[in-house]
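Supplementary notes for students who missed Thursday's class. We covered one full example, reproduced here. Read the sequence, then the structure, then the short commentary at the end.
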Amino acid sequence: MKHQQEKKETIRKNILNGAIELFSKQGYAKTTMKMLSKHLNISEGLAYNYFNSKEEIMDEILMQLGDMFENVGQITLVNKSNKKDLENYINKYFNMIADNTEFVKFGYAMTLSPETSNKVKAYINTKISNILQILSDFFLKTGYENPEMTALEFMAIIDGTSQHYLGTSQEVYPIETMINYLKIKYCN
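Structure (token representation):
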């Protein structure tokens, strides 16, 4: 029974990863479930056993992305008040992006797309609010004068840094310089 569940989860992940590949290469609007099935060398019926539509696949991808970002904050900053914890958050955040580059790049692009469902946009907005609250609580505990504004500024910097890193040649963008800047500015 456990083996069966693992096999189903593997197929589900393969469908999601294949969708990211196809959506990235040819665009969300041009990709069909039939094309995705062919790309993955599975029957269209099998794909529909896991997802009712490409819209459902897109929703799942973007919700997983939101969860991933929120989880980094939950794991490293909730109930913490040491600036070393923020340094740990910065490291985990950028490692997560480096380890999931195509997924995050695709997610950023799709969250700005008019094709993204209102349900997912609301979900992502909730995740962003949760992350801002986690950061704000952390900055309050660590003695920042204006924790809400510091959280907004910090999030804008890491988000912008991420997007520049993902949108340019990763060999050229000074990601390590930016990471060090964040640590000096917020962790000292």
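Commentary. The radius of gyration is 19 Å. Residues 73 and 131 are 6 Å apart (CA to CA). If anything here is unclear, bring it to office hours.
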